[in-house]
Amino acid sequence: MMxxxxxxxxxxxxxxxxxxxxxLIAVPALPILHESIRNLYYHVPMWFAMxxxxxxxxxxxxxxxxxxxxxxxxxxVESVNTGIIFGFLGLGTGMIWANFTWGAPWPNDPxxxxxxxxxxxxxxxIILRGSIDEEQKRAKISAIYNIFAFPIMVVLxxxxxxxxxxxxxxxxxxxxxGAYDLDSNMRYVFYPAVLGWILVATWIMTLRYRIxxxxxxxxxxx
Amino acid sequence: MFSLYMSFYYLCYCMILIKQxxxxxxxxxxxxxxxxxxxxxxxxYVISTVFVCYxxxxxxxxxxxxxxxxxxxxxxxxxxxxKSFMQESKGRLLYYYTIASPQAIxxxxxxxxxxxxxxxxxxxxxxxxxxFQNAVANLGLYLIAVLLGSISFSTVxxxxxxxxxxxxxxxxxxxxxxxxxxxxxxxxxIKLSKNAMDGLxxxxxxxxxxxxxxxxxxxxxxxxxLFPYLWxx
Lengths: 222, 233
Hints:
The complex is a heterodimer.
Chain A: H1 2-24, H2 40-67, H3 70-101, H4 110-131, H5 135-163, H6 177-180, H7 184-219
Helix pairs in contact in A: 1-7, 2-3, 2-5, 2-7, 3-4, 3-7, 4-5
Chain B: H1 2-35, H2 37-57, H3 62-86, H4 90-99, H5 102-132, H6 139-166, H7 171-198, H8 206-231
Helix pairs in contact in B: 1-5, 2-3, 2-5, 3-5, 3-6, 3-7, 5-6, 5-8, 6-7, 6-8, 7-8
């Protein structure tokens, strides 16, 4: 039991540590950011978790096209469902942060627009699934769309913001966050937070996947 | 010996592929030439949209001028390319399946759509330029942007229209699926054409041109890999 579930325990410990430590451990005093720099521990890990979980979804879509197993498709779709939740959480925490440091919840920033469009892309994936009734056809066509859209999402989130002016650190010629602001104390909280939230996302995905498998089993004619 | 055999095999495969693409492309153009339905319809659509925009805006600042042109082209492209798989009947698709490889079909569709889009956007640009009269400082670079734009629209929308046609053939789905995918390309194209309008030095725009070419290559490669799965039913 324990040897299989150690990563779930680890995720709980890491997330609890980063939530509590993020509020208590000292941060550098910086102009404009002030104490809102603590949002780094809550906002950035959401994006890491989202990207990783979308990557899992694409990998399982590719696997589905090779194997044709229904379970691969279920993992792909539940990964997308979980990724969308984390995308909305990332947008929400980012909007709160932007409101205090940049003066508006939605400044015209390529990274904001890019992540909103990426979320639209995955909502379109859900709509596409809804429009097809036949299960195998649905799995195949949505897997194809998922793989087709992924490279463009990578361009949207990682390449485009670096080509244009952006408020985000590390983009448009800005130095990365790590260069000036992230002192060693913050790293001790930030990296566990990223790892913890990625594990939590995976956990949510596996739970949703297992529920889907059970539902499928229930619906089968005995 | 084995590698020699393999390279010979690939050479044969490539030659067959090129032959199939040629005859499929010829068929597409011939069909279009006989009916001229799609082409004339889209042409009228573009011209009347340009005219509607002219009547509602009269004069526009450069930023709006550029954005409006690309929005007109975007909708024209969606309407034109959505047809590329939807007009094919089920029986005809089955016939293609027996005589041609899936790669040949998707390549011929992409090339045909690129040709259609280039002609259409050239005409649209001409009409737009005559009606609105806006000074483009670097016309050569703007035409390159129009060319890259029509190629990008064609490569992305051809695959999306194949996906949408498999999923119940409706126009709404085509729009929902294609908008998020085309927006990054559209943002790059609008930036590139704005640079051309302002007459900036071409070296400023090399980044955009490079990324656009790269995305197109990736999209074509992914289409070639994925279309055989979509095709097999």
